[in-house]
């Protein structure tokens, strides 16, 4: 079995730009996608939104949109990025992604929905009620999802983040997103993702070739 390791963060704009690549990988027969959340904005890296942050991220987001075709919504640019009470915290959405994966193998679907909620709709994806509503949209059992979120809070998520960062170092990745292919002999090779952003057909051909 060939595995595509995806090292990401739910608050990484370039990971949102790479969402079409992740979705394409989901549909390749014989390819398993393994998720590794890196915790970019956790601990001391958490922050509340202010004008300085807005001015920093907007040019990057516009470049991502131009390069990948991924849409950024007015609810994000003129809603969330002007909300100085909103907290940028990767940990709650990571916990939600782990919960969705463990409950129903829907971690990647949860990541995609979280990214849409953040970058298109301007929702506060660090807030538990928002994450619970997104899980319900995906058809996950609400009580089971909340229980799984509780189970993953704290040490399990901290360990997952540490393991993801260790993998990032092992494949010599330089940030998020990083993709690495593992063949059926366990050999790992990083994919130069920047060559495929906005080039879904080239990406599909690469992955199909990898699983032959």
UniProtKB/TrEMBL annotation:
Tree of life domain: Bacteria
Entry-linked InterPro entries: DSBA-like_thioredoxin_dom, Thioredoxin-like_sf
SUPFAM superfamilies xrefs: Thioredoxin-like
CDD domains: DsbA_FrnE_like (cd03025)
Residue span(s) of domain DSBA-like thioredoxin: 7-184
Protein name from the UniProt record: DsbA family protein
Source organism (scientific name): Serratia silvae
């Amino acid at each position: 079995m060939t595995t595509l390791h995806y090292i990401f963060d739910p608050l990484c704009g370039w990971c949102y730009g790479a969402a079409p690549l992740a979705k394409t990988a989901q549909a390749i027969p014989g390819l398993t996608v393994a998720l590794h959340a890196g915790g970019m904005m956790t601990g001391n890296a958490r922050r509340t939104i202010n004008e300085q942050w807005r001015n920093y991220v907007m040019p990057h987001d516009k470049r991502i949109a131009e390069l990948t075709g991924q849409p950024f919504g007015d609810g994000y640019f003129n809603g969330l990025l002007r909300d100085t009470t909103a907290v940028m915290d990767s940990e709650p959405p990571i916990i939600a992604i782990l919960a969705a994966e463990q409950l129903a193998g829907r971690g990647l679907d949860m990541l995609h929905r979280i990214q849409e909620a953040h970058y298109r709709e301007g929702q506060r994806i660090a807030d538990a009620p928002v994450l619970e509503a997104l899980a319900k949209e995906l058809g996950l059992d609400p009580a089971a999802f909340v229980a799984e979120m509780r189970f993953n809070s704290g040490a399990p998520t901290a360990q997952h983040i540490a393991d993801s960062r260790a993998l990032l170092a092992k494949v010599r990745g330089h940030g998020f997103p990083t993709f690495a292919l593992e063949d059926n002999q366990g050999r790992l090779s990083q994919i130069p993702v920047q060559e495929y952003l906005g080039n879904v057909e080239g990406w599909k051909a690469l992955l199909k070739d990898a699983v032959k």
